[in-house]
Amino acid sequence: MILALLLALQTTPAAPIVKGTGLPPPQSEEGQIIAPIETMLAALGREDGAALLALVRPEGGATVASERADGTRAVRRFTWAEFAAQLKAGPDTFEERLGAPAIETDGDIAMVWAPYTARVGGKVLHCGYDHFDLVRENARWKILNVTWSQRTTGCEAQ
User: What 3-state DSSP class applies to 33?
Assistant: First the structure.
């Protein structure tokens, strides 16, 4: 009997491996938290400042800690209005892809941390990590702040 069971287990085909996005299902709380972030990234790709501003709390902003070509580092902070005003249509399409996010929540606040790769015209421009602070009001998640690192090395692994 045990031998028959073991043989049956050996001949049972393995479940197919499905490659996922690393993002939570949309109906979960985590999916609801990541939704405005994905919408923001789509707005960046379309260079649509008005769509971006609809997703954020106006008192927040964007901060980038970048590595310059000469190896020095710089930190720049923008209000959301300043950040949105920089979005100008160019000849090539901008795309930012997130890796698997870490999402933490406590009541009406959330934090999302994820690796990202930014591409222009399909070519890697830079990469790093995004850190989003979100707040929920009126049953809707809004982005308060985004802070990201920006480098041009080690992007192939992301």
Answer: helix
